[in-house]
Amino acid sequence: MQRWRRERNIAIALMVPALIASIFVGHLSEMLLFVVSYLYASQTVNVNRLERWLSQGGQGEKPDFKGIWSDIYYHFYKIRKSQKRRKKKLGKMLDSFRKSTGALPDAVVVLGSYGEIEWSNKVAHDFLGLKKSDNGQRIPNLVRHPLFIQYLKEQDYRHKICIPSPVNENMFLQIGIVPYGSGLRLLMAQDITHQKNIERMRTDFVANVSHELRTPLTVLRGYLETLQEMDGAPGVYSRSFQNMAAQTERMQALIDDLLLLARLESKPKKSESVLVAALLSEVCQESDLLENDERRVELHLASSANLLGDASELRSAFSNLLVNALKYSPATSPVKVSWRDAADGGAYLEVEDFGPGIPAVDIPRITERFYRVDVKRNQKIVGTGLGLAIVKHVLVRHDAKLDIDSQLGRGSRFRCVFPKQRIC
Ligand code: ADP
After folding, report:
1. What is the CATH number of domain 104-191?
2. What residue stretches are annotated with the Histidine kinase domain (predicted)?
3. What is the pLDDT of residues 36-89, one digit of tens each?
4. 414 to each of 67, 315, 333, 350, how far by Cα in Å?
5. How far is the CA of 355 from the centre of ligand 1 (A)?
6. Model's pTM, two decimal places?
7. How far apart are CA 118 and CA 184, in angstroms?
8. Topology of 272-422 in CATH?
């Protein structure tokens, strides 16, 4: 306000003498024109100086000026200084971010909205074979693994993927992506070779032990059968033989399930066309034959969809669900099996029984290996605790999921939901 007053006073100081002079010598308009031209010219010079200073990026000391122009320069100067300070602070933050991500044992890559690399740390160069000069390039052009390309395309980052490193096929990387900001994505890759090796050792160990146990068990079963068939075996032994036969049978089932699980973990996936209606009819018929009494299985084929996958794996999954439904429900109650189209273009298999149901706390755990609900209640029902683990594994290998719905005293419903891309 003060500065404006100064400008106004200068204008008045020039106008008043011009007016007085015009009273004596006339030429009022010329006098006023002269004063206005002078004021206009001096402001133009100042505007010009400001424009030149700004066009040079406001570098250097602010030009020395008087009045309102001094204020204008000063404000610009202050804004530029605070911008400089902010830039310095941001630079420092960026530097410490780079240093901390550089110290991370995991690979970190910042991706733009088109998948172009904006920045990557040193570990990303070692794990993914990226170079500094790759900045700006789209990552699917550099990391070509089909699973990774599909992961980027689908943009479903709730889960992580595991792929071999593009620079070392013996190294396994777990890759996860976190979207942030406007269209930016943070890719993180962790070396999980060690875990993978331990996992492989465990699978191999279980598979080898199960395989090695098979032969002695077959021999034992053979001798037991012979002993049971022998005439004249003392009656006191016959119960023991029966028990031994039941236990060897249980052990056989355990070994078979363990071998199947090991195979599911290691063998490559198959993708053949599986005729679901025929497969289900067979599975239901076989299960029904095992039941002594009336037919209990009600099969409802509401969909003509077939699946892309492995027929023998699907057969074991479906049959495990059906055997469970029959096993864990009264011998007089029906078991409903249906194959239906899903609203999203996929299809689902539903196995429903009217048994005692499963307590809600156990539902999240029943697909774990060896997990059995209320062992006391079920102790008469023979099982390995591996059936649902097999079901889950088979479904994961078919990109499908298992939904379990159960109400105590009413029954359980197991649903295998297959996605659209698995339908043929
Ligand atoms: P198991 O060989 O013991 O049947 P599973 O892995 O197939 O092993 O099942 C795990 C547990 O889940 C079972 O022990 C049982 O307690 C429970 N379960 C599975 N299916 C049903 C069902 N249809 N109704 C009630 N309980 C079930």
Report:
1. 3.30.450.20
2. 208-422
3. 998 899 888 888 888 888 888 777 666 677 778 888 888 888 888 899 899 999
4. 84, 15, 17, 6
5. 11
6. 0.69
7. 9
8. Heat Shock Protein 90 (3.30.565)
